[in-house]
Structures are given as C-alpha cells and as structure tokens.
Design brief:
The chain has helices at about 15-25, 30-45, 85-95, 105-115, 125-135, 205-210, 215-220, 225-240, and strands at about 5-10, 65-70, 75-80, 100-105, 150-155, 165-170, 190-195, 195-205, 250-255, 260-265, 270-275, 280-285, 285. It is of the alpha+beta class and about 290 residues long. Helix 2 (about 30-45) packs antiparallel against helix 3. The structure holds N-hydroxy-L-asparagine (SD4).
Length: about 290
C-alpha cells in the first residue's frame, strides 16, 4: 500500500511542507504542491539561502537558481536570475510556456517580466549588512557548513500517485559572479522519474554536479535500492572522489513510488521534513562521518 499523499523537503522547513500538504490534502497535484511549498521559503526573508533575503555573490548581486520537474519528465529551470523573488514559478513558466528547459540571467529576467512577475530588490537589511561585513575580509570559502546552507528541495506524491519535485536557492554565499550550482540542474540538484521516484540535494553543488547526484539516486532506486540505500550510495560516490576531505557538506533526500523516503549526508546536521497521513515529522539523517 503506497503512502500518499506525501511531501518531503530538505531541512526543517515545516511551513513549506505544511503549505504543500494543504494543496495535496485537497486533492491537488504534486506539481502544484511543490511549487507552492518551496515558494514559502522563497518568500521567507529570514532564509538567507533562498529567494528574497538570499545572500549575494562576492560582487553584491543576489542571483537565484531554481528548477521544477513533473510526472511526465517535463522540466523548467532558471539560473542566475536577478530581481525576481519566486524563481521556481519562473521555472514552471519556462516549462509550460516555452519549448525550452533552461533560461539564464538577463534573458530569464526579461521572460519573467513578460510573464507578469514584478521586479523586486532581493536584499534585506540583514543580508546587506552581512555583505558589508564580509567585504572587510572578502574571505572566499566554498564551504557549506551550518551557516551556509538552507536550499530547499521538495519531492511530493499526490493522491493519484504522481510524483513531482522542485528545488530553489541563492546558491553559495559570496560565490564568484556567474557561478551556478547544482540546484537548477536537472539530474544534479533534482530528478524525478514517475515510474521510480525522485531525489534532491543540498550542500556543495559542485560535488553534486560532477556525480549527477539526483539522477544517480533515482537510477539506483530503479535497480532495486531503497531511498535510504540509494542516498547512502550517492554520498559514497562523492566521498570516493574526495578522500580525506572533510570540509564540505552534502545532503541527499529521496522518495520512491511507494512513498518510502530516505536521506544521507556527509556530516551530522542534515535533516528532512516529511508530511504524510502518518503525521508531520522532522527526520534525523545518518551521516558518512560521525
Ligand atoms: C549550491 N546546493 O548552490 C546549493 C547550495 C545549498 O544549502 O544547498 N545550500 O551549490
């Protein structure tokens, strides 16, 4: 008996899963649920890794990455999008209103205005202040630790049993201008296959891109692994390329067609939220290092 509807997301974003659950429990689609769900974090100015209030690159540009994928394998993505608070919704428009999958930078922004999105200053008082502070030392760190995370990746199964996912982020704080992470890259930060399941990632995007992490996890599930086993294998692939390197975090989250879920990470600290008929829980995730 498959568990459904169900929604999971990276980290403890309980307002996001609650919003997605509201959509799913009324019979809404997984696609609407994940879009509505991650929009909660995009709008939350206190989340400094997503949407409005996201931290800028090292030149002071707030640039957002997001993608969305549906049960039919349709997908849309925006990278290096500026001045628009809801990149996931622009990604959905790319999916539904254009023959393309990825729009970047100024073209993506122009497309967003044509679709009726409004221009917004994405800085907040807090992120502007932090950026001014950061400029004093301009220390460039690609380390995603406890202070440099909070990307939301969300996976849902609706009452019909169909799966969809979305992922949205401002990326790595103080990144090199132009840098794009894994989050908007189909197969890296997110992948959905309605026959099998879905996966999403958070952490140092470069590592996730070079192992095509989310696609790998879905394919491992296709071969019979549970979501938990598949996430563990995904992290192990990354660690095999990073022997003795302990200075970065990755968290993977996966769901299969039966509504079973799993997660795994490099360092302790990654959790995921799950909302299903069984309740609304914050799930602790095991890690490669203790
Ligand atoms: C990135 N994976 O841009 C994202 C960052 C992240 O929580 O997950 N932050 O590489």
């Amino acid at each position: 008996n498959p568990v459904k509807p169900i929604v999971v997301c990276t980290w403890d974003f309980k307002n996001a899963t609650a919003k997605a659950w509201e959509v799913l429990s009324k019979g809404g689609t997984a696609l609407d649920a994940v879009e509505e769900g991650v929009r909660v974090e995009e709008a939350d100015e206190k989340n400094e890794t997503v949407g409005k209030g996201g931290r800028p690159d090292r030149d002071g540009n707030v640039t957002l990455d997001a993608c969305i994928m549906d049960k039919d394998g349709n997908c849309g993505s925006v990278v290096y999008l500026q001045n628009i608070a809801h990149p996931v919704s622009v990604a959905r428009k790319v999916m539904e209103e254009t023959p393309h999958i990825v729009l970047a930078g100024r073209g993506a922004e122009q497309f967003a205005y044509e679709q009726g999105f409004k221009k917004e200053d994405l800085f907040t008082e807090s992120t502007r202040k932090q950026y001014e502070e950061w400029k004093k030392t301009s220390k460039y760190e690609t380390i995603i630790n406890i202070e440099n995370h909070d990307t939301i990746g969300m996976l849902a199964i609706d009452e019909k049993g169909d799966i969809a996912g979305a992922c949205t982020t401002s990326g790595m704080a103080y990144k090199v201008a132009g840098r794009v992470g894994d989050s908007p890259i189909i197969g890296a930060g997110l992948f959905i296959d309605n026959e099998v399941g879905g996966a999403t990632a958070t952490g140092v995007g470069e590592e996730v891109i070079r192992t095509v992490g989310s696609f790998l996890i879905v394919e491992l599930m296709r071969q019979g692994k549970s979501p938990q086993e598949a996430c563990e294998e995904g992290v192990k692939r990354i660690m095999a390329k990073n022997k003795d390197r302990k200075d970065f975090q990755i968290g993977f989250l996966a769901i299969n067609k039966n509504g079973e879920t799993g997660g795994y990470c490099v360092h302790p600290g990654f959790t995921y939220r799950e909302y299903s008929p069984k309740g609304h829980e914050n799930v602790q995730v095991k890690s490669f290092y203790e």
